Amino acid sequence: TGDMGDDIGVTSVNGVVLRFETEPTTATITGQIKTGQGAIAVAAGSGSLANSKFDIRQTGRWHRFAFLFTGNTEVSGEKVNFIPAGER
Question: Among 10, 56, 57, 71, which residue has the least CB neighbours within 10 Å?
Answer without folding.
Answer: 71
